[in-house]
């Protein structure tokens, strides 16, 4: 990407990091990836995100940007002329996409996080049910956003909601193994199930989302 210096601080199995990687790939922006050890955070991470001390952090020409949705919007704006856009030009459509992207992290993200660290099986099952319920709502949102015919929330290509929700797809399989409940189920949410297959197969996503469920579970054990 010309003269731009892009460095991404991340963790390989983080949905928040993965969505930034997907957008960078989508736009064809090359970047240096630095894997963080969250049990021993680097001085660079602490200096770049002193408020939350979390990944992802994108460092663009020495300037740090934190919070995944903020980073995605930043990339889309700064590299507006490079590759496809994830945010619509129309203000109302943009507001709608931001609303659903916030809904995903609010409902799916919070339940995902609780499942990871809850000890009781009942608690994990209740949170998985919250994800299922959010996905049922998102099935309706998909119908609305895609007009019932387009392949993605963003239309013919990825939009903000696609990359935000799509970044959890690998984890849905992990949750299924942890909790024994099917999260993204074609009988309950057929449009979303088909969307998930399309999303996972797309070029910008290949090699980004965690696919090896046991590897993710093993890695998770190191934090418990
Ligand atoms: N809202 C943040 C969430 C980022 C987040 O939770 N990152 C986790 C990894 S998945 C992290 O860095 N955790 C380290 C910690 O909590 O100390 C975003 O969208 O970027």
Give the SSE layout:
Blueprint: E1 6-10, H1 15-27, E2 32-35, H2 43-48, E3 57-60, E4 63-66, H3 68-78, H4 91-117, H5 121-146, H6 160-166, H7 169-179, H8 190-201, H9 213-221
Parallel strand pairs: 1-2
Antiparallel strand pairs: 1-3, 3-4
The protein binds glutathione.
Glutathione binds next to helix 3.
Question: In words, what does this structure look like?
Answer:
With 224 residues, the chain is of the alpha+beta class. Helices cover 54% and strands 8% of the residues. The chain contains nine helices and four strands. Helix 1 packs parallel to helix 3, helix 4 runs antiparallel to helix 5 and helix 4 packs parallel to helix 6. The structure holds glutathione. The site of glutathione (GSH) has 11 residues, from helix 3. Is involved in the conjugation of reduced glutathione to a wide number of exogenous and endogenous hydrophobic electrophiles. Its EC number is 2.5.1.18. Its main location: cytoplasm. Belongs to the GST superfamily. Tau family.
Query: What distance lies between the first and last C-alpha atoms, to the nearest angstrom?
Result: 39 Å
| Class from secondary-structure proportions | alpha+beta
As a percent range, the share of strand residues is 5-15%
Write down the overall mean pLDDT. 96
In order across it, which strands form the biggest sheet?
2-1-3-4
Bound molecules: glutathione
User: H/E order of the elements?
Assistant: EHEHEEHHHHHHH
Poorly predicted regions are none
Main pleated sheet = 4 strands, mixed
Shape: globular
Radius of gyration: 17 Å
Number of helices: 9
Instruction: Let me know the number of strands.
Output: 4
Percent of residues in helices comes to 40-55%
InterPro entries: Glutathione-S-Trfase_C-like (IPR010987), Glutathione-S-Trfase_C_sf (IPR036282), Glutathione_S-Trfase (IPR040079), Glutathione_S-Trfase_N (IPR004045), GST_C_Tau (IPR045074), Omega/Tau-like (IPR045073), Thioredoxin-like_sf (IPR036249)
GO biological process, one term: glutathione metabolic process
Domain GST C-terminal: 90-224
Function: Is involved in the conjugation of reduced glutathione to a wide number of exogenous and endogenous hydrophobic electrophiles.
